[in-house]
Amino acid sequence: MKPFEYISPTALKDVPALLTGNAVVMAGGSDLLGLMKEGIVQPSRVVNLKNVAELKGIQPARGGLRIGAVVTLAALLENSDIRQRYPALATAAHEAGPPQVRNVGTVGGELCQRPHCYYFRVLNAPACTRRGGAQCPAATAEGLSKWHAIFANDRTPDVSASDLAPALIAYGASVSILGADGKERTLPLEQFFVNDPQKETVLGAQEIVTAVTLPAVASGTKGHFIKFKERDSYDFALVSVAVVVRKQGETVRDARVVLGGVAPTPWRSKEAEAAVVGKPLTEQTATAAGEAAVKAARPLKDNAYKVQLARVLIKRALLATA
Predict the structure, then answer these.
(1) How far, rounded to the nearest angstrom, does the alpha carbon of residue 91 sit from its chain's CA centroid?
(2) DSSP state, residue 216
(3) In the chain, N or C: fewer CB atoms in 10 Å?
(4) How confident is residue 254, by pLDDT bands cut at 50, 70 and 90?
(5) pTM beyond cutoff 0.70
(6) Is the same domain home to 309 and 181?
(7) Do 232 and 284 lie in a common domain?
């Protein structure tokens, strides 16, 4: 690891000016430090955000909740409002890592973590497009694509690593970003992630996530999150599914179905949503939603199993809200 300058500001207004050159921000550091040890990221300055008061806390906001970027996953999971009103998010926070990770990992860091693809993370592996390669090795005949995308995998087939993002998007969350000019902008979290070989989010130079805001939950809303992984202990999702369903009587009036582990960004399936809206949530409609969701899937040579996995998990997640 190369030497670097370490700065720990206490005021949010001071942060943008510190993010010059190849400076990086750190909160929990569980993702960044691994990248630095491997030599993937070699910053000249690390800006610690944990002492910035404006980035802390979970506060009421217009009937919903505003969650500061440096709130830990453990604090998210322990919050009674999150558990009662946004159960899919609470489950996602639990599944995002073991206690050691949840105690230090933050909401902002979890959303902004880099891909965990072997070709990106290991320097002596064939270079992927994110490290200057001409083509992603996983997309070649010789490459290993077991963990890669089945949707939108034509540019770069690695997958979004976030567990929180599918649940937050399913609840209609927005994200606040502080720019280099010191002004904050807010956009739907669904628009925060991008399918780009050079970056995973819309964040530009000298920009940081400051908070995530959850809207109020309408009456009759239920949510559920399922994550399937190779190991029962901590692991990244092969496929995850977050669903949030609002019913009136027995009829589904609104639904959001968002998948993780299947695309370079969290993948919202409007096809699955359309299959259940206006209908009672039965095994038949849940099955139809799973079928509709995977019609556009284009698996690579090693990951066709994800198609069936996504189909089944969508059905299970929807039936859990029935």
Answers:
(1) 14
(2) P
(3) N
(4) very high
(5) yes
(6) no
(7) yes
